[in-house]
Write a sequence for this structure.
């Protein structure tokens, strides 16, 4: 579904992605973790070309994302992206937030788009917040609207860039629960996160990155109980002692 | 004597009202044209094309770096030298529209750039085109930042319009000049001139203040 072959990216002199090789199959849930600056956010943002790559091949659902000439609209319509800072449109209600892409990109009729919008907002537990603006919602609720916004496009892939890192602790679970349900229903997901409980519950693999490179790839139980590399070991120590 | 001049002034009121009409006409047309051109220029200025951004930047700098009076003279006196004949009124509207557009360009560009980049990223990730992003996501949010200084610019436009009297447009200021030659009481005559401009500008100033307060309420709610 997603294929990285020798992907490299530089920000000026900084080699932020260094020789990335990674294959993600349909239905897989892959968690990407690593210290700050490891390139994990950049990695996920390359998939829908929020960031371009300079070298290598990146193929998503049989489309070559690294090809500058390719039209990204169709690819992006099939990928849902959830940001750390939610990025909901503040001047629109929750329903408007989730229906604008189906209306404008998929050219759906208003009635149909709103029907799907209500379904998705109900699915994430926000049926009584449909006419609210983001400013009237808590962080956890906003992030759930953001997930619903992604789901309304009926995506093949859902990408999450540190979805709970900006949330107060008591709201993290309500968002993770939605994500766990999605994973159990077979959605192909890539999640950049430090939430190890989530990884152990639904991830098929954990990808550990550091300094732009993939250091270790292993099933969550293997990685968390028995990391094979020194950097993996020290990373786990640093996040588990707190 | 003062009483006599005052009566003469009152008898000239119709002439002053014609001046008001002219000021409103020049300012009104320039407001319309300047806003349209200014918005388009501002959107390009906040866009991705480096060359176009630079060209617009030069245009803005030139206009902001030269006296408006000089710009009016250039358009009115020098253009005929390259074959473009202009009467005073169209020249005035062109010069004032040009001035207004350049300032509105900067206001609009700042407003657009003030919208958090995450908004564009979310819209891009959703598959919205550049045009759709601008129209549905960015501009609606940018308008909150743009409105107050935009209305402020309109107040400046009305005041700057007095400069076009220099090329013979018979606006409020010109009426004042012509009148003071018959009624040599400068304070009285130009007091009336000032009052008439104030009558036009005051509602606009209030509108700007009202919008600024309203925008602050909205943004603190966010």
């Amino acid at each position: 579904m997603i294929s990285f072959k020798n992907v490299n990216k530089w920000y000026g002199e900084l080699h932020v992605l260094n020789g990335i090789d990674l294959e993600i199959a349909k239905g897989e849930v892959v968690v990407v973790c690593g210290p700050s600056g490891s390139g994990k956010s950049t990695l996920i943002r390359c998939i829908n070309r929020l960031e371009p790559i300079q070298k290598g091949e990146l193929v998503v659902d049989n489309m070559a994302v690294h090809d500058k000439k390719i039209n990204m609209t169709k690819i992006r319509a099939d990928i849902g992206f959830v940001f750390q800072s939610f990025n909901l449109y503040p001047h629109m209600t929750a329903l408007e937030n989730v229906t604008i892409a189906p209306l404008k990109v998929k050219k759906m009729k208003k009635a149909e788009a709103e029907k799907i919008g209500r379904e998705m907002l109900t699915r994430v537990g926000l049926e009584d917040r449909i006419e609210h603006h983001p400013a009237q919602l808590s962080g956890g609720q906003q992030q759930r609207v953001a997930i619903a916004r992604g789901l309304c496009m009926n995506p093949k892939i859902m990408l999450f860039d540190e979805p709970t890192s900006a949330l107060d602790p008591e709201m993290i679970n309500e968002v993770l629960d939605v994500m766990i349900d999605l994973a159990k229903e077979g959605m192909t997901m890539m999640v950049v996160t430090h939430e190890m409980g989530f990884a152990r519950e639904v991830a098929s693999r954990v990808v550990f990155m550091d300094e732009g490179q993939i250091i270790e790839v292993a099933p969550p139980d293997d990685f968390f109980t028995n990391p094979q590399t020194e950097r993996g070991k020290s990373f786990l120590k640093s996040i588990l002692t707190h | 004597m003062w009483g006599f001049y005052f009566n003469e002034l009152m008898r000239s009121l119709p002439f002053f009202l014609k001046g008001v009409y002219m000021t409103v006409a020049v300012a009104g047309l320039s407001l319309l044209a300047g806003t349209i051109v200014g918005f388009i220029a501002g959107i390009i200025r906040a866009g991705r094309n480096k060359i176009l951004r630079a060209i617009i930047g030069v245009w803005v700098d030139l206009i902001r770096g030269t006296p408006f009076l000089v710009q009016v003279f250039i358009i009115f006196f020098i253009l005929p030298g390259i074959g473009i004949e202009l009467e005073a009124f169209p020249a005035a509207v062109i010069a004032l529209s040009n001035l207004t557009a350049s300032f509105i360009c900067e206001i609009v560009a700042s407003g657009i750039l003030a919208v958090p980049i995450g908004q564009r990223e979310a819209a891009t990730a959703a598959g919205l085109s550049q045009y759709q992003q601008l129209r549905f996501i960015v501009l609606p949010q940018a308008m909150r930042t743009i409105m107050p200084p935009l209305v402020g610019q309109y107040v400046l436009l009305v005041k700057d319009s007095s400069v076009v009297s220099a090329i013979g447009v018979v606006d409020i200021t010109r009426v004042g000049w012509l009148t003071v030659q018959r009624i040599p009481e400068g304070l009285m005559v130009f007091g009336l001139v000032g009052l008439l401009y104030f009558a036009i500008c005051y509602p606009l100033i209030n509108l700007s203040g009202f919008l600024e307060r309203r925008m602050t309420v909205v943004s603190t709610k966010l």
